[in-house]
Amino acid sequence: MLGAPFSLCYNDFGDTMTISSLTNDKIKNLQKLGQKKYRTETGLFLVEGRHLVEQAIASGLCREVYTTDETYSGFPRVEVVTEPVMKKISDTDTPPGIVAVCSRPKPGPVGKHVLLLDGVSDPGNLGTLLRSALAFGFQTVVLDDCVDFTNPKVLRSTQGAVFGLNLIETSILDFIPQHPNHVFFGTDLHGGSGLEGLDVVPAQCGLILGNEIRGVRPEVLAITNRNLVIQIGEIESLNVAVAGGILMYWLKKDH
């Protein structure tokens, strides 16, 4: 566990105390949240920048805000810190001046459209896929052996979409048979059928995308209802985030 508990006490704006010590216990705890181990143990993670902080607050997951702006009043529990302290907390070379401590979102009921990710390992790809999922109405996302969605690079790529999704970390091999009312589409570069024959899309469906190198595992492809491929020329394959956006759009649009 972390060396000292996160405090939910906040400053009275009439007598604001600025944290200037780089060895302050709260600051050391915030630094530890840069590591997946501590994010998992505490159920907490950090977001940086005004937009993500506002999204966190709106979602109800924000627990504390740390900022260099002494006039900030957008949340009841605020700690003011100096620029050097903010740089110590921040994961970026140019700190945005505001971070929020957030609680990990809890899974909810499975929606009609589900995106299932099988071993997506690149933070940028995962972040882009989560953003596209929210844009195209795939509001439930199943994560199986993927990069941690609270990774700072993932969070920046999502642009706040992580706060609007139902994120479920579980085995896809377990999830599919537990949801027989959904039709599951795998993606298979070598054995999938083209989108042109997909004229009717079920009201409840799942799209499965795989790891950047190996794709969707064979054992997962073996239990899908149908496997798809995007017909392309000149190059062998598309980036998983690009392919995912195309497929989610296709499965949601009117045919």
Structure, explained:
- With 255 residues, the chain is of the alpha/beta class.
- The chain folds into 2 domains: 13-103, Ribosomal protein L30/S12 (60s Ribosomal Protein L30, Chain: A, 2-Layer Sandwich), CATH 3.30.1330; 113-252, SPOUT methyltransferase, trefoil knot domain (Alpha/beta knot).
- 30% of the residues lie in helices and 22% in strands.
- Strand 6 (113-118), helix 5 and strand 7 form a beta-alpha-beta unit.
- The longest helix has 13 residues, at 123-135.
- The termini are far apart.
- Mean pLDDT is 91; it is low at 1-15.
- Which class of secondary structure composition applies to the elements? alpha/beta
Physical arrangement of strands within the biggest beta sheet: 8-7-6-11-9-12-10
Rg over CA atoms: 21 Å
Kindly report how far apart the N and C termini lie. 52 Å
User: H/E element string?
Assistant: EHHEHEEHEEHEHEHEEEHEH
**Biggest β-sheet, characterized?**
7 strands, parallel
- What does the average pLDDT come to? 91
In total, how many beta strands?
12
Number of helices: 9
Helix proportion range: 25-40%
The CATH architecture category of the largest domain equals: 3-Layer(aba) Sandwich
Shape: elongated
How many domains, in number, for the residues?
A: 2
CATH superfamily of the largest domain: SPOUT methyltransferase, trefoil knot domain
CATH topology of the largest domain: Alpha/beta knot
User: Are there runs of 5+ residues with pLDDT below 50, and where?
Assistant: 1-15
* CATH class bucket of the largest domain: Alpha Beta
Percent in strands:
15-25%
